[in-house]
């Protein structure tokens, strides 16, 4: 068998003891004490249905009204306001962050 002296046996034993303690610690945090998740909700959100609302004016809608539209967040709402005035709904595509796909989703919510 292996010819190990007392110090080598002690070193190997300590190594395996630390590995075992580490594994027990990982098991504890995964099984006994799992992380607790919290669902965060966006403040002041409302569900907006396309057919049940009147269209918003691109030139007169407030920041608060714009962020209520699905697909428009705070940054995009600021950009829409900064790029005013609009002559048509299609002018919305000139706003950075609104391409053809996004425009198709948003166009039913607005009027010039």
Helicity, in percent? 40-55%
User: CATH superfamily of the largest domain, please?
Assistant: Photosystem II 12 kDa extrinsic protein
Physical arrangement of strands within the biggest beta sheet:
1-2
Question: In percent terms, what proportion of residues is strand?
Answer: under 5%
Mean pLDDT: 85
CATH topology (fold) name of the largest domain:
DNA polymerase, domain 1
Give your account of this protein's structure.
This protein is mainly alpha-helical. The chain folds into two domains: 1-37; 50-111, Orthogonal Bundle (DNA polymerase, domain 1). It is 43% helix and 4% strand. It contains four helices and two strands. The protein has helices at 6-32, 63-67, 74-82, 100-106; strands at residues 56-57, 110-111. The chain has a two-stranded parallel ribbon. The longest helix is centred in the N-terminal third of the chain and has 27 residues, at 6-32. The radius of gyration is 30 Å and the shape is rod-shaped. It starts with 5 loop residues before the first helix and ends with a strand. The mean pLDDT is 85.
């Amino acid at each position: 068998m292996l010819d190990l002296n007392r110090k080598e046996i002690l070193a190997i034993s300590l190594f395996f003891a630390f590995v075992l303690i580490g594994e027990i610690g990982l098991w504890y945090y995964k099984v006994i004490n799992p992380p607790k998740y919290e669902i965060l909700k966006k403040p002041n959100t409302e569900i907006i249905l396309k057919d049940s609302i009147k269209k918003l004016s691109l030139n007169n809608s407030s920041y608060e009204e714009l962020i209520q539209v699905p697909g428009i967040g705070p940054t995009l709402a600021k950009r829409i306001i900064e790029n005013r005035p609009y002559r048509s709904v299609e002018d919305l595509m000139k706003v950075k962050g609104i391409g053809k796909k996004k425009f198709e989703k948003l166009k039913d919510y607005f009027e010039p």
